[in-house]
Amino acid sequence: MPRSVNSVAKRARRKKIIKQAKGYFGRRKNVWTVAKNAVEKAMQYAYRDRRAKKRTFRALWITRINAGARLHGLSYSQLMGKLKANNIELNRKVLADLAMNHPEAFAAIVNQVK
What we know:
Blueprint: H1 7-20, H2 32-70, H3 76-85, H4 92-101, H5 103-113
Helix pairs in contact: 1-2, 2-4, 4-5
């Protein structure tokens, strides 16, 4: 019995990887072995950074809230402590948006907790 190979599936697998490597530089975009490694590494980075993005945004929000709070004579930790004591349940994302885009609303919240 002759050996059978499934060239159609093999080509489809390779085309899929080469298509994912579109836009890469040099041999990474068109040489199978190099492209396969580049795409696998890119997928690892993408998986990792979907989780890291959440941490990065939280840090950004905290920085913005701190900057807004210091304009009103409070530090970030003092503001968050007073918000919790006054049962004002606004998350960091909303507070950061208020501090950046609606300073008068943020000032009203700070004055309410002072």
